[in-house]
Sequence to fold (736 residues):
Amino acid sequence: MVQRMTTKRVLMGPGPSDVPTEVLAALSRPTIGHLDPVFLRELDETQEMLRQLFGTRNTLTLPISATGSAGMEACFVNLLEPGDHALICRNGVFGGRMAEVARRCGAEVTLVEAPWGQAIDPDEVAEAAKSRSFKVLALVHAETSTGVLQDLAPFRGIADSCGALLIVDAVTSLGGVPVEVDRMGIDAVYSGTQKCLSCPPGLSPVSFSERARELVAKRKTPVQSWYLDLSLLGKYFGGDRVYHHTAPVNMIFALHAALRLALDEGLERRYARHREQAQALYGGLQQLGLDLPVEASVRLPPLTLVRIPEGVDDAAVRAKLLRDYNLEIGGGLGDFKGKAWRIGLMGASATPRHVSLCLEALGHSLES
Amino acid sequence: MVQRMTTKRVLMGPGPSDVPTEVLAALSRPTIGHLDPVFLRELDETQEMLRQLFGTRNTLTLPISATGSAGMEACFVNLLEPGDHALICRNGVFGGRMAEVARRCGAEVTLVEAPWGQAIDPDEVAEAAKSRSFKVLALVHAETSTGVLQDLAPFRGIADSCGALLIVDAVTSLGGVPVEVDRMGIDAVYSGTQKCLSCPPGLSPVSFSERARELVAKRKTPVQSWYLDLSLLGKYFGGDRVYHHTAPVNMIFALHAALRLALDEGLERRYARHREQAQALYGGLQQLGLDLPVEASVRLPPLTLVRIPEGVDDAAVRAKLLRDYNLEIGGGLGDFKGKAWRIGLMGASATPRHVSLCLEALGHSLES
Fold:
């Protein structure tokens, strides 16, 4: 029998993360029109703050009115046309999803793979990039299914070597790990609000380089999604405010507040907090005798993969954590389904209190 | 210089409409996980309440995690394959958008048109349906750009005559005017939350018939949008709760509350309220000497088109209403851009207080 929740959940899964009361308060401000000057000013500010988080000066930086997976789709449907070739790196669910989305755009996909829980080897990508020219090279910065952080530094050069635009999934890195869109030469990037930004799910921040924008303008075929067509979105989000669809006003209020909190904290300090709490969690988990399948050098601070010990009932432990501690952690996906947990330390959930609670609750649950 | 809003706006444009405090309170409940049993129970209830609003028993009734235009796209990308023929009725912006979306699915579009501000003539559609077989017949129930309400009764028969599935835009009718999906034999229908449901913008309720679902299962080509693929969405929203994307938890809390309010009021009573307030508005506008371009028999109660008198400055009047009365009404679109206003009486905005305020404010603004 499901009970109505009486106390607040503690969210330490793969997202959503805990949402600060300031963000919830902004979310519930009285709704106003999507063309109201008061709203448009906040939208401007939201876009400007997103540029700071993404580390970019890209004009076309905006929140897509849907969740992170729609942000992914926005990147591919705008940059690919039928018959184009895409070079895609896969080491978890989200690289696989990229390939699936690219194929639905009519693209030919070449995959470079690494085992789940490991990073992609840039040398293998560089080798594959020699085989032909590609329209896009795509990879995941922070693989939410495994907790692997990919060093992006080598990939601009590799993309250039095969004439490709560079697409990056930053769903679980934005706000928790530096993304550095301009410095890394990323052409298209997408994220979600419910991870390290600690805003409820529902929007997907994206950013497109000038080069990406020009490529969209020169397409031979229309973008297959009207809703995600950048040339139409750009007319609303790019300054003229031409009606395209009704912007999700309250969600943008919330994102505005979440970005404000991130910038007030200071981005460097925020990234350090994520690293420090992750270190504390790693230590505590190892003290409990638990194994972390991802090698230390490529661990993603906001999300930790933990192997479920032999003989332990995955679902029973997670149900107990939820019931006894109001604590949510995530199950495994794909290759790690039933074999690992995913513990999130994202945004407002990356605090010493969260680390302690999780270690204590997990310790008790594994004993019993 | 734009001022921060200090008092609450009164929303009488084409949406968003005023959002009740109960709905805003639900929106700002602490975020919980999208696979949390507490959330899944509310999602079940939300889907069941949506069935009541839509007048359907369709299993596949759910809120798409994006705004109304994405709901439109969901209907077309799932039911159309390249080379299919679509018969589409256009008498305003949204019929035109349907045609655009259908073409982006690779479909051949046959248009039946009526002048903006008039209803579609079913006889003309029946005539066009004789020319060949069609995969879908699509039309708008409530044209948000003109305030025309289309009688849907003749269209199931016409769709059958050409072998088509029937797609209906109910963005500005759901919750304000009876939609009756099952009785009208509609196969795919989409709406928005920010109109007569008086919930913030961000979700698109949709419903698909068993026949539509079977057609999607038998497709030869994959649905071009991964995000909107009904066969994938059905695995999360259809009972198994297989992860597809992170559901926008807080927006669904808000929709749940908005649907609860609608059902508590009673649907018949709610529809009557919309009709009665619209009648009061028509009378008052005519007393002000204003012309309503849409013929009385096809007027859409939730949205009224008002011709801007000769010599009156559209933008100046709307700016004055916003500044002096905190009142938002809508500008014209397409054929009516700069020539008409759109006054919404949707959901919580369909009250005698709203009608009086609007008439008084408009009267004063036109005098000065």
User: Anything to note?
Assistant: The CA atoms of residues 74 and 196 of chain A lie 21 Å apart. The mean pLDDT of chain A is 96. Chain A has two domains: 10-17+267-367, 21-263.
